[in-house]
Amino acid sequence: MTQDSEKDFNEICDEILLAEERFRDEGFSQGREDGELNGYLRGFASGVKQATGAGLELGYYYGFSLNCRSRINSGELKLAQHHDRTVAVVDWLIDKMEAFDRKALHEDCFMENVTKIRAKFRQLSSLLRIDLQPQMSQYSF
């Protein structure tokens, strides 16, 4: 009987002595879980913001290009110079936007394609001699 009660007393002493280590380990585990969750939530919010910016910018380019093609075809937009070149740039933009791979947004080719589209849109802006840069700085990615 004294063995059992002595053993219980030893276990109790060990638990008291090891409590600090146990609480530290539990706190570390809980902190890590909370940090990972917070990181995922922040990453998700950042991704949504960047995707919104990309969608707005590319949608602006696509919509303007479609409008420009329509006005050129109807004769409403008369181009004094570089008619064929302007039409080629507008067609390139429309084709590139329609062929844009929306499922490969995480790959390196996404930013390369966006950079090419931006450059072509600046070229179109230059050919039309107007400033066409979208004013979406709060959504820019």
Topology:
Layout: H1 2-74, H2 83-98, H3 108-128
- What overall form do the CA principal axes indicate? rod-shaped
How many strand segments? 0
Distance between the termini: 73 Å
| Average pLDDT for all residues | 82
What's the gyration radius in Å? Answer: 31 Å
Poorly predicted segments: none
Main beta-sheet strand count, sense and barrel state? none
Q: Tell me the quaternary state.
A: single chain
Strand content: under 5%
Give the class from helix and strand content and strand pairing: mainly alpha
Q: Bin the helical content.
A: over 70%
Q: Number of helical runs?
A: 3
Describe it for me?
By secondary structure, the chain is an all-alpha fold. Helices cover 78% and strands 0% of the residues. The protein is built from three helices and no strands. Helix 1 (2-74) runs antiparallel to helix 2. It is rod-shaped. The mean pLDDT is 82.
